[in-house]
Automatic annotation (TrEMBL):
It comes from Sulfuritalea hydrogenivorans sk43H. Residues 177-431 form the EAL domain. GO terms for molecular function: cyclic-guanylate-specific phosphodiesterase activity. SUPFAM superfamilies: EAL domain-like, Nucleotide cyclase. This is Diguanylate cyclase/phosphodiesterase. Residues 35-170 form the GGDEF domain. Pfam families: EAL (PF00563), GGDEF (PF00990). InterPro entries: Cyclic-di-GMP_PDE-like, EAL_dom, EAL_sf, GGDEF_dom, Nucleotide_cyclase, Rev_trsase/Diguanyl_cyclase. NCBIfam families: GGDEF.
Amino acid sequence: MSDPAAESGAASAADATSLREALDRAIEARRADGGNLAVLLIECGVISRIDAVWGYQVGNAVRDRVTAMLRADVLREGDVVNEMGRDDFACLLSTVDGPAVTLLAAQKSLRVLSTPFWIGEEEIYANPAIGIAMYPAHGDQAETLLQRAKSACTRAHDLTGRIADYAEERDNSGAAKLLYENRLRTAVSEDALELVFQPQYDLRRGQVMGAEGLLRWPDPALGMVRAEDAFAAAELADRVPDLVSSILNRALRNVSEFRYSAGLDLRIGIKLPARALRHADLVDVVQRALGTWSRRPGTLIMEIGETSVLGAEPVTRETLGKLKEAGIKLSIDDPDLAVSSLFWLATMPFQEIKIDVSAMGDLAGTPKPARILQSFIELAHHLKLDVVATGAADEATEAKLKELGCDYMQADFKGPALDPLNFVERYGFNED
């Protein structure tokens, strides 16, 4: 008995070889006459699902229909279309005047494939995306053009228009993301991430009351990776809970060591992008880490950035509420926060807000910025939010912050971010 899937795979391999040979010939012809050609890589986005519901024979019939539609309604004499994979089709436009003509062909392909396919009484729609690569602008070898058309097609899935042309910087960006993703997996699995700790001062008592753990990811290939890039790579790899777990366990371990080796009983702040709250198991990750290191929930401050996400995604607000119910202290740490956002943020379970005062200039010598800051602090207190000032430059600013009623301060002049050993040496109480 024949195997439709195997037969389809063999046919696709033969088609791919046929297309590469046709592309090689077309490149030689354009090299000779100085003209352009283009490759459209089209992902149909429906055939694999048809296979799963109606079987390979129906899927094959739809593939044949797609090929026939492209030949009849898009391609000209001398152009070629071949099936490159179960859902992938490659069109060779053997000669084009330039990018505008190629884009028109891609748009026409998109319209053709956006019409419904009828399977019995069912109306099925494809979800096509199209990537464009041109000779000689994007490459002068068949394999290069196909790869770059595929790269553009991958990007097209994220665009409203569903069409993208190849650009080298985008391709490099995609390669960089893949590299970050793979390196992050290794760093998390090998516990290679590092934290440095910056002290936070209680302005009312004049003493260190906590620290913020700042992620440092030193990678031999990538250099020092920013926390934002680490979380972006974790999202791509679907490893956000693993990254948060690694950061939390390292932070809570270090804070426990501060307590037992140096007499420092500190609260610890960890910053997360609000996107991380999309993960339903995040609360369990946090609670497990607290249990492992025997820390009270109230000594952990989750500092949330990118708070605009909270307004758009209900799941993030639900996770925030669960963290509050678990006893975690929640802090707003969003430098892009608009004052208008405080209206709806007031309905969220936050207990603290961080504000960067570096842009306010000389608070001690200029009354207007000081009055604005005082109003903000009073508003925050009315909302039952503690205020943590960051970016203070000197002791005069520290004194003014205390006068204005600010609760806490975190500033480089008062104490830079240090690795755990140097943090203990500088701020510890115990003597050897």
